[in-house]
Protein backbone atom coordinates (compact mmCIF):
# COMPACT_ATOMS: atom_id res chain seq x y z
CA UNK A 1 0.00 0.00 0.00
CA UNK A 2 2.83 2.40 0.84
CA UNK A 3 4.47 1.62 -2.50
CA UNK A 4 1.31 2.63 -4.39
CA UNK A 5 0.95 5.87 -2.42
CA UNK A 6 4.60 6.72 -3.02
CA UNK A 7 4.28 6.00 -6.76
CA UNK A 8 1.19 8.19 -7.08
CA UNK A 9 2.86 11.00 -5.14
CA UNK A 10 5.94 10.94 -7.37
CA UNK A 11 3.88 10.88 -10.56
CA UNK A 12 1.82 13.83 -9.29
CA UNK A 13 5.05 15.69 -8.48
CA UNK A 14 6.33 15.18 -12.02
CA UNK A 15 2.98 16.22 -13.46
CA UNK A 16 2.68 19.41 -11.39
CA UNK A 17 6.32 20.38 -11.95
CA UNK A 18 5.59 20.76 -15.68
CA UNK A 19 2.60 23.10 -15.20
CA UNK A 20 2.99 26.83 -15.76
CA UNK A 21 0.51 29.31 -14.37
CA UNK A 22 0.11 32.97 -13.46
CA UNK A 23 -1.08 34.56 -10.23
CA UNK A 24 -2.53 38.05 -10.61
CA UNK A 25 -2.97 40.29 -7.56
CA UNK A 26 -4.84 43.59 -7.37
CA UNK A 27 -3.86 46.02 -4.63
CA UNK A 28 -5.80 49.14 -3.69
CA UNK A 29 -3.33 51.19 -1.71
CA UNK A 30 -1.52 48.72 0.51
CA UNK A 31 -4.50 46.40 0.83
CA UNK A 32 -4.84 43.22 -1.24
CA UNK A 33 -8.25 43.24 -2.94
CA UNK A 34 -8.23 40.22 -5.26
CA UNK A 35 -6.06 37.25 -6.17
CA UNK A 36 -6.70 35.24 -9.33
CA UNK A 37 -5.04 32.10 -10.65
CA UNK A 38 -5.43 31.27 -14.38
CA UNK A 39 -7.65 34.35 -14.90
CA UNK A 40 -7.60 38.13 -14.60
CA UNK A 41 -7.93 39.74 -11.17
CA UNK A 42 -11.04 41.86 -10.62
CA UNK A 43 -10.45 45.51 -9.89
CA UNK A 44 -11.83 47.46 -6.96
CA UNK A 45 -13.53 50.04 -9.21
CA UNK A 46 -11.17 52.89 -8.32
CA UNK A 47 -8.91 52.67 -11.37
CA UNK A 48 -8.26 55.96 -13.12
CA UNK A 49 -9.30 56.33 -16.77
CA UNK A 50 -6.61 57.00 -19.37
CA UNK A 51 -7.43 60.68 -19.82
CA UNK A 52 -6.71 61.41 -16.15
CA UNK A 53 -3.36 59.64 -16.28
CA UNK A 54 -1.60 62.74 -14.90
CA UNK A 55 -2.69 61.77 -11.40
CA UNK A 56 -1.11 58.71 -9.89
CA UNK A 57 -3.57 55.88 -9.27
CA UNK A 58 -3.73 54.24 -5.86
CA UNK A 59 -4.38 50.83 -7.46
CA UNK A 60 -1.64 48.47 -8.48
CA UNK A 61 -1.68 45.12 -10.33
CA UNK A 62 1.08 42.56 -9.89
CA UNK A 63 1.52 39.45 -11.99
CA UNK A 64 3.58 36.49 -10.77
CA UNK A 65 4.42 33.96 -13.49
CA UNK A 66 5.35 30.53 -12.18
CA UNK A 67 6.99 28.64 -14.98
CA UNK A 68 7.06 24.87 -15.01
CA UNK A 69 9.87 22.64 -16.04
CA UNK A 70 10.00 22.12 -19.79
CA UNK A 71 13.28 20.24 -20.12
CA UNK A 72 12.24 16.71 -19.20
CA UNK A 73 14.58 13.94 -20.21
CA UNK A 74 12.91 11.34 -22.35
CA UNK A 75 14.67 8.19 -23.40
CA UNK A 76 13.73 5.68 -26.04
CA UNK A 77 14.70 2.03 -26.13
CA UNK A 78 17.29 2.75 -28.84
CA UNK A 79 19.15 5.20 -26.57
CA UNK A 80 20.30 2.37 -24.27
CA UNK A 81 23.48 0.39 -24.85
CA UNK A 82 23.24 -3.11 -26.30
CA UNK A 83 23.93 -4.83 -22.95
CA UNK A 84 21.21 -2.80 -21.25
CA UNK A 85 18.74 -3.62 -24.03
CA UNK A 86 19.51 -7.31 -23.69
CA UNK A 87 19.04 -7.16 -19.93
CA UNK A 88 15.67 -5.38 -20.24
CA UNK A 89 14.38 -7.84 -22.83
CA UNK A 90 15.49 -10.89 -20.84
CA UNK A 91 14.07 -9.47 -17.60
CA UNK A 92 10.69 -8.74 -19.17
CA UNK A 93 10.57 -12.18 -20.79
CA UNK A 94 11.44 -14.01 -17.56
CA UNK A 95 8.98 -11.86 -15.59
CA UNK A 96 6.16 -12.55 -18.06
CA UNK A 97 6.54 -16.31 -17.48
CA UNK A 98 5.14 -15.85 -13.96
CA UNK A 99 1.81 -14.66 -15.36
CA UNK A 100 1.14 -17.54 -17.72
CA UNK A 101 -1.93 -19.47 -16.69
CA UNK A 102 -1.70 -23.08 -15.68
CA UNK A 103 -3.72 -25.70 -17.55
CA UNK A 104 -7.09 -26.39 -16.01
CA UNK A 105 -6.90 -29.43 -13.77
CA UNK A 106 -9.69 -31.97 -13.78
CA UNK A 107 -10.79 -33.25 -10.38
CA UNK A 108 -12.55 -36.59 -10.95
CA UNK A 109 -14.18 -36.84 -7.50
CA UNK A 110 -15.46 -33.28 -7.33
CA UNK A 111 -19.15 -34.22 -7.36
CA UNK A 112 -18.76 -37.35 -5.19
CA UNK A 113 -20.54 -37.26 -1.85
CA UNK A 114 -19.52 -39.78 0.80
CA UNK A 115 -22.08 -42.29 2.07
CA UNK A 116 -24.12 -41.46 5.14
CA UNK A 117 -22.83 -43.00 8.35
CA UNK A 118 -25.48 -45.09 10.05
CA UNK A 119 -23.38 -46.09 13.01
CA UNK A 120 -20.15 -44.71 14.31
CA UNK A 121 -17.99 -47.82 14.04
CA UNK A 122 -15.16 -46.42 16.18
CA UNK A 123 -17.48 -45.90 19.14
CA UNK A 124 -19.16 -49.25 18.72
CA UNK A 125 -15.87 -51.14 18.65
CA UNK A 126 -14.16 -48.80 21.17
CA UNK A 127 -11.23 -48.26 18.83
CA UNK A 128 -9.51 -44.90 19.21
CA UNK A 129 -6.32 -43.59 17.76
CA UNK A 130 -4.00 -42.30 20.43
Automatic annotation (TrEMBL):
Keywords recorded for this protein, A-Z: Signal
Pfam families: DUF8199
Signal peptide: 1-22
Source superkingdom: Bacteria
Keyword flag Lyase: no
Protein name stated in the entry: Secreted protein
Organism: Winogradskyella litorisediminis
Taxonomic placement: Bacteria, Pseudomonadati, Bacteroidota, Flavobacteriia, Flavobacteriales
Amino acid sequence: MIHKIFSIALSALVLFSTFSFTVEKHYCGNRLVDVAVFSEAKGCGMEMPLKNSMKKSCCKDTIDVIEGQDELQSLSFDDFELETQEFIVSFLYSFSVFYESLPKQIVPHKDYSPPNLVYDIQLLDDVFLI
